[in-house]
Amino acid sequence: MTSSKIQTREQAIRQAAEWRAEGQRIVFTNGCFDIVHLGHIDYLEKARALGDRLVLGLNTDASVSRIKGPLRPVVNEYARSRMMAAFEFVDLVTLFDEPTPKELIELIRPDILVKGDDYTVATIVGADFVLANGGSVETIPLVKGYSTTSLIEKIKQSL
């Protein structure tokens, strides 16, 4: 079952260590992934292609609300976790509640840290840690016209 890809922080740390010991390159990204759309799928698929395993740090419901406002998330963390785990290109999903994924990145120790091209390497949380440990930081071009916020606005306008 894909739900086995959803792991606690401790399980994720152990799994990443096992993959690293096997010589596999670990890619890490994070986000809310509230209403899944083409932009998310394209981004995650390209992120996974950069290495052997993709670890996804998923914001908790409380974290999403702090970032996006009290009406978000639209989809709860359990459902978001299951959807992300269902993608074949996502190897592991773990939740984080901190304001940034910095601590999680330092515990997972990815070889490659990835964010969308709406970020620069200088603005990506954890980039300094990954680079200092011999890893790389990559940005992936986002599919224009796709965002959860714009989808929500379109739905509101259609009501």
Radius of gyration: 15 Å
Alpha-beta classification: alpha/beta
* Strand arrangement in the largest pleated sheet: 3-2-1-4-5
Order of helices and strands: HEHEHHEHEHEH
How many strands appear in the DSSP assignment? 5
Shape: globular
Relative helix content:
40-55%
Mean pLDDT: 95
Distance between the termini: 37 Å
Report the uncertain regions: none
- Name the beta content range: 15-25%
The total count of helices amounts to 7
Major sheet summary line: 5 strands, parallel
Entry summary:
This protein has 159 residues and is α/β, with parallel strands linked by helices. It has helices at 9-21, 38-48, 61-68, 77-86, 102-108, 127-132, 148-158; strands spanning 26-31, 53-59, 92-96, 112-116, 136-140. The model has no long low-confidence stretch (mean pLDDT 95).
Explain how this protein is built.
- The model has no long low-confidence stretch (mean pLDDT 95).
- The chain is built from seven helices and five strands.
- 42% of the residues lie in helices and 18% in strands.
- A five-stranded parallel β-sheet has the order 3-2-1-4-5, with helices on both faces.
- The chain is globular and about 55 Å long.
- The longest helix is centred in the first third of the chain and has 13 residues.
- By secondary structure, it is α/β, with parallel strands linked by helices.
